[in-house]
Design goal:
The structure holds two protein chains of two kinds. Chain A is an alpha/beta fold. Chain A is about 25% helix and about 25% strand. Chain A has a single domain, classed as 3-Layer(aba) Sandwich (Rossmann fold). Chain A has a nine-stranded mixed sheet, with helices on both faces. Chain A has a two-stranded antiparallel sheet with strand order 5-8. In chain A, strand 10 and strand 11 form a beta hairpin. Chain A is globular and about 45 Å long. By secondary structure, chain B is an alpha+beta fold. Chain B has a single domain, classed as Mth169, Chain: A (2-Layer Sandwich), CATH 3.30.1280. A three-stranded antiparallel sheet of chain B has the order 2-1-3, covered by helices on one side. The two termini of chain B are about 20 Å apart. Classes of the chains: A alpha/beta, B alpha+beta. The interface between A and B is medium-sized, with 17 and 10 residues.
């Protein structure tokens, strides 16, 4: 039996269908979770997809953070459930305090919609297992607020704890040292493209693995990341380690 | 300053990037200054101002609501600071713009 993964649909989500399909491609049964409902439909992991939830008004992700479904997602995460935020989903997680840091407006002030490369920092997490470390993975970015920020002390702590999962790299796999570099699409500090929480069960990244999930899209490098999530969720489901949340 | 109970009060919340936080909007404004033949202007920081009316039993309660809203929703404390300004009872202040005169 395939593992069930939920994809939250906020008003303004626009990568939900791609994400539902990407998860099916790697063997999951994917289900849409409506933002107004607190019911997670017994899923083994939750993905917050890209888009412009609630129009990105005020700050990207902040209005979505207070939606009913996020009460359940937060409880699921607190109980150890796997949650992945992609692009706008990462912004929602950051606003909710479920992953460290904040996503600022791109340094260039331009919307960054293009193909970039990221490299996985470690392959021993639920989000990166089986993915090659340090190898450029090509996938698109499409965001106006993706400049990763945390204060220096927090950045040091993230590095020490191994919470930096993904960094922007050039085609040869080099991490750009300067935040103003063509390989770093938004000016993120330390070229950080994705992080996870301390507990290691909630992660977010700005690039779109689901838009690089099959060859016809121009790259299938995102496949490995979706596969990692689905395999991790399946393993947890088999071990009976999926938290049940009941939120009124 | 006290008001009768349930008098709706008008507040303004100013949200600005914390010192040291990159503010590309502020930088873009600075970069436009030569086009206006303006020199000697620096340190431009762009934030936002939110005005709102609160109905509560007391002024303290109203202020507590605004503080919570400012802290949890209107600002992201990681990157932004906020200031709350009480503009006065509704009716005494214009509903938008120029309310701080």
């Amino acid at each position: 039996m395939s593992v069930r993964i939920g994809v939250v649909v906020f008003p303004g989500s626009n990568c939900d269908t791609d994400t539902l399909r990407g998860l099916e491609l790697v063997g999951a049964e994917s289900v849409a979770l409506w933002h107004e409902s607190v019911d997670l439909h017994g899923v083994s992991a939750v993905v917050l997809p890209g888009g412009f939830a609630y129009g990105d008004y005020l700050r990207a992700g902040v209005i979505a953070r207070f939606s009913p479904v996020m009460r359940s997602v937060a409880a699921f995460a607190a109980a150890g459930g796997l949650v992945l935020g992609i692009c706008n989903g990462f912004q929602v997680l950051a606003e909710a305090g479920l992953v460290p840091g904040a996503l600022l407006r791109n340094r260039s002030l331009r919307f960054a919609g293009r193909w970039i490369s990221i490299a996985v920092e470690r392959s021993d997490t639920p989000f990166t297992r089986g993915a090659p470390v340090g190898v450029p993975l090509r996938m698109p970015v499409a965001h106006g607020e993706g400049c990763y920020y945390a204060d220096e002390a927090t950045l040091d702590e993230l590095e020490r704890n191994g919470q930096v999962l993904f960094r922007y790299v050039d085609a040869s796999g080099r991490v750009p040292a300067d935040p103003v570099d063509p390989a770093n699409p938004n000016g993120s500090l330390r070229a950080i493209a994705g992080v996870m929480n301390r507990a290691g069960n909630v992660a977010g990244l700005m690039p779109h693995p689901e838009r690089a999930a099959e060859g016809v899209l121009g790259s299938d490098d995102g496949h490995a990341l979706l596969q990692a999530l689905v395999d991790s969720a399946a393993e947890r489901a088999q071990a009976g380690r999926i938290p049940e949340v009941a939120v009124a | 300053m006290s008001h009768s109970p349930f008098t709706p009060l008008r507040f303004a919340v100013s949200v600005t990037p914390r010192p040291g936080i990159l503010d590309p909007q502020g930088r873009a404004v600075e970069q436009s200054l030569p086009h206006l033949q303006i020199s000697g202007v620096s340190g431009v920081r762009v934030g936002r101002r939110v005005e709102l009316t609160v109905t509560a039993a007391t002024e303290d309660e109203a202020r507590a609501v605004v503080d919570r809203l400012a802290h949890e929703l209107l600002s992201n404390p990681l990157i932004e600071a906020y200031e709350v300004e009480e503009l006065g009872p509704v009716g005494d202040v214009p509903q938008s713009g120029g309310a701080t005169s």
